[in-house]
Amino acid sequence: FAAWRVWPHSACSPQRSTTLPFRNREKRSKVSSALIGNHLHTFAMASVAETSPVVPLFQAAAIAADVGDGDGASVWAFAWSVACEFGWFGAGYVVILVLIRTGLLQKLFPGLFRGASPKGAAQRRLAMKNLQAAASAGELDAVREAWGREKARGPLPLDALKDVLPALLAEAPGAAVAELAGHLEQYPGAHRQPATLNALAEAFVHAERPDLARAFVAELQHRLGLQGDERTRELLLEGGGVAAAAAVGRGKARELDGQASARGCLTAIKSSLNAKDADAALLKILAMQKRGLEVPPSAITLLFKVAKENGSETTQRVLSSLEGNVSLPVESFALLLNECLKQGDIKFARRLDALTQEQKTKMHYSIYEPLLKLFAKACDARATAIFADMQAQGSFASEGLCGCLLARCSESQNLRFAEAITEYCRSRSLMTLSLFKTLMKVYACCGKYELACDLYEQVLAAGLQPDNVMIGCLVKFAVKCGRRELAEQLLEQSAGADIQNYMWLIRAAGKDGNVGRALELLREAEKAQVAGPDVALYNCVLDVYVTNGRMDDALAFFGAMKDRGTVNLVTYNTVMKGHCAKGDVDCARGVLAEMKQAGVAPDSASYNCLLGAAALGVGTVRGGDAACWEILDEMSEKGTPIDNYTVSIMMKVAKKAHSPQDAERALAVLDRAGRARVFDDEVLFNSVIDACIQRRDTQRLAKVLASFTEQSTMKPSVQTYGLLIKANSMVRQVNKCWELWTEMVEARSLLPNAITLSCMLDALICARRVDDALALFRAWQGRMPPNIVMYGTLIKGFAAARDADRAMEMYHEIRAQGLQLNLLAYTSLIDAHARGGEMARASKLFQEMIDNACDPNVITFSTMVKGYCVEGDLENAFSMFSTMLSRGIIADTVLFNTLLDGCVRHSRFQLADHLLSEMEKYSVEPSHFTLSIVIKLWGKRRDLEKAFEACHVHARSGRSCFDVQVVTSLISACFLNRAVDRAVSVLDEMPAWRGCPRPDATVFGALLGGLVRGGALPQALDVAQRAIDASAASGVHGETWASLAAALAQQGMHQELAHLTQKLASAGVALPCGSSQQDGGTPAQLHGGHRAHQNIDRRRAPARTSVRD
Fold first, then answer.
1. What pTM does this model have?
2. Residues 893-919 pLDDT 10s
3. Is the CB of residue 443 less than 8 Å from the CB of residue 476?
4. Cβ distance 531 to 499 under 8 Å?
5. Measuring CA to CA, which residue among 868, 819, 822 is closest to residue 842?
């Protein structure tokens, strides 16, 4: 300030040099020159706070010495100059001090006095460190307190502002923008640059407040006129602010709809991916690709990562959209395949593998590895091809990968791929003891015990020494494949160190019937001190006695074991098994009692011995069934769990049981089989499926199939595939049948046998897909010689479709191939003609069948009888019935029902009575169809009491003969006899009938239709209300409600009609348009429409696939 005051008057212009008190111009010139130089030094010295005011004095003295004229004027001039210097310096010092204290100077020049005081700078740095520490520790209150204290002392550094932002957002998000913008406006010189704007905007976006980021950018533009740059636009795009980003920029705003750069597109994609919006990111990637811009592989990989987090459906959808449009990078394939490996999704992996081939992706180890692991476990032949391609590409398969692949081959029994891996390892000298052991496991899982034993010589040839684990396994496999010498050799090599080796050899001796050798091995083990207190070895010898039928020796050995105290649960179970094998159940129960007295609790195996013996008597010996239930009840009381063996035994009981009740009780074991995993054991699983199919228990069958699909890791054999196809056909899952067939033939490359192909053909026939069945038959006709079962199945399908001509084509093809028609083929051909009313041709085929020594069964006779009954030829029908009885064939319920229905249809009531007495004579169990026919019989005979009595008799007998058809038949009989009230009373009587279902829409529809036709509208309204209360109104056909509404309108019952319409609407039933009008149609028209609907329903009803109706 002093320099500013002196310079203009002393040096800057000669006109203003008169201010100096020197009259001699020459002296003034010298003084001025000296003052210019010295005042510059004075200004520099005064700019430091600690500068001493004595300095100008020495400078002025130097000036006086230079002048040196010695007169009095010079002295006074010198004094005046010094006084001016002191005066202006003091004034400037006071002014600057005031500006600093008031803070005005910091606002005008924020960087001028920063750090001027070392003490203040240290305090500032300490305050910023404390603020940063509080922010890192999440102490938001401390951060806000420091912010309030420090923001008035000057501008905060950028890092401090970023630390303050989360605290402001946590307290008042809306005020954070104003506070930060106000602080930057208060100190405009500190942060007036785009870097500050971008850093704080990015902090807002990362805090998941992109809206505040946009507001902050707009606020700084308004307050400071600060414009953003390309980074600002990217941040706003990342936060989703497309409009705000378009408004940011230098000069003219750049629109983003088609003009953005590749970097802008990628920023928009990144924004969608950060928001976990895979669909939006997908659209942007496709749009970018459509514009000809290159999509980076990282963006596609990141898209699949987000899609994977959203679920498999999203991943599938994204892949479908990108497929054919964008080339997937190697990283994306690796990511997706590893996810498939984690989830075990072989289907999706196959799709990805096909896509790599389609777009000719340059394969990488990261793709080869998951593909090989997946296909190895799925037993897919593609694994071998991929492994060969991997070698051709120069990728190296490590020992660890080869071991993992071999282990997966053992699970899937993929022997072909295992051998390819082994050949690779041998060619590169990678075979280690671990790989040999894993390969041995593969052979064992595939049942190739001979090959597993051959590995022993290969191990020795490779210079490796088998360990005890491998020797033990080799002993086991040698015993299984009959190589006793190798087993003995391995036993000697192991120096008798493992008891399991002795046990396997003892079992082998027992299998050969060499009990003496078993005892010798026991003595050797005792000498080698292998057995010790372990009773397993003694139990093994005891089992040799039992399996060879030497029960006396077994009991003696059992006594010796008890004397030595070497008995356990397995010992008692083995003795029980021996008694049960001889049929001595009483002795087995005695052992069970002895076991309980000894304090040994029986387990599932103990009861299974007794259960198996009791099951042998089911269906043949009286009391066998009761013994089974007694044992099961005891198991339940003792809390003994049901295991796989229990389930297997009871499935045999279910198939052998004569009564449906016993079969149901046996199958009910499946509902209690908590520990039994029937789908893990293929033999047990097949027995369960077979029992459910034989007993037609579709409900339990569906549960077993669902559990198999969700939980089983079984690799079914061809035989099991046939049973699975047959089972899924029974539960009407034909698409699942196709999936199983495709899995067997294509995925696992298994060759179906004739039985499996016949099962698949039958599944298609039962689903009314005759053409598909014929196409499948023709496709395999060249690879598998057709048999009569396949032809018979196709003929059955044509018969069900009432296509006798195509059925006869199959007949002529059978003759042309020289095959002999079997019972199924003849019966199906007869059924095809009987359904079409061609009984003459049916009779001819029936006679040909007898001439060819193919004996007809009850189904064949039933088919003939039904054909005659449909034509009304009851004489021939009964003649055929008599012929059947004369051949010693016992008539079943279906045949009697067919004759009964024919008699009732043609009003041959005496014949019907005779048939009913014959049913009692032959002890034929009536069915629900029998009861419905009897009800129709008494309805036609105008004896309604007898119809109700038949229902009561069946209800008291405990038979499950009631279904909807029986109830509707009874209601129809009531209306036929004009007993309207009695028809309505059926609703009240149904709950009292044992096994009778609750009234459903079919029952209510039949009642409403009859009441409307009979003009009983009040009763119809009451039944309608009961249908609504039972939540069955929506199931009643719309024409039934329309006829009721029209009848009410015709009778002028408009209030009741409005009330009914309102209630139906609340139940979700809308009356057809015009049905509520007064001119809703005549009763005859309405009744005709109802009857037409009934006829349509009958025509739409699916025909049964069986040749028997």
1. 0.53
2. 888 888 888 888 888 888 888 888 888
3. no
4. yes
5. 868
